[in-house]
Amino acid sequence: MCNENARGSRFFAGNCNFSHQDVAKMKSMAGHFMKNFMGHIGSYIPHNIEDFGEMYLITIPLPGRAKEEVRVSIINKIINVTASKPNIPEYEGAKGKPKEKTQCFPNMGFRFIDVNIDIPLPTDADENSISSKMANGLLRITVNKKPAKNIDINDEKNN
User: Fold this and answer.
1) Is the pTM of this model over 0.70?
2) Environment class of 51 (CB within 10 Å of its CB; exposed 0-12, middle 13-18, buried 19+)
3) Domain count, the chain
């Protein structure tokens, strides 16, 4: 638990004092560790999977892409979505790459990156009923649910 002491500096339970510079160094070190260990934090592609009773709706934001630039496929109940980084005129004319933020968790904006995401479907999803639509930079994938199959319970005769 973080508290304020009388001088206004922050400390954690156990009287381990950390200055703002220490916290900034720890965030930077954690950011470098996460980048090297798990890939760049900003490369995660956000998506929603919503249950609407009879179907699932998967929504993936793909800013700057047209439907011809996006590929959706399925194998073994896993949906794969791929799309190349879009051509942005401002990026094409600029020399070099944009500078990377050094903070551990930068603002939650989007990045123009190549997309290759696997989304496992729920067990009751009917993979033969998948459809997708692309509009205004949003890919919407709908998947119907399979109806539950009732299994009769028979009486067992005593011998």
Assistant:
1) no
2) exposed
3) 1
Is residue 159 included in any domain, yes or no? Answer: no
Q: Measured between alpha carbons, how far is 142 from 132 in angstroms, rounded to an integer?
A: 6
Classify residue 53: in a domain, yes or no: yes
Tokens representing 35 are: 């980048």
pLDDT in tens, the chain (159 residues): 454 444 444 544 455 677 777 777 777 777 656 554 444 444 578 899 999 999 999 999 998 888 999 999 999 999 999 998 887 777 666 666 666 555 555 555 566 788 999 999 999 999 999 999 999 999 999 999 999 889 999 998 876
Burial status of residue 27 (CB atoms within 10 A of its CB: 0-12, 13-18, 19 or more): middle
Task: Show the tokens assigned to 47.
Answer: 């998506």
